[in-house]
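Please review this one.

:::
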Amino acid sequence: MRIKDNYKVRQIAGENLIVEQGKSQADMTKVISLNSTALLLWNALSGKDFTIADGAAVLTGRFGISQEQAEADVRRWAETLVRCGIVSE
């Protein structure tokens, strides 16, 4: 998987929002806000190909959670971004 290069995270009104670069106007009907854990994954994995295991390593290293829980959390995060067209498989 890979986060598409034309998407960036910007802090707007205190929220971390994913925005598509190169658009003259943002489509505010499709706002995606990232919590601190989702932002951690975004920052660690953007700009490179990654797997669920790569993301799980980020979470286990940061939070000390089980591998199974980390993989389930990363899978949900990635599936959401794939459905929104932000991550390519």
User: Anything to note?
Assistant: The chain has one domain: 2-88.
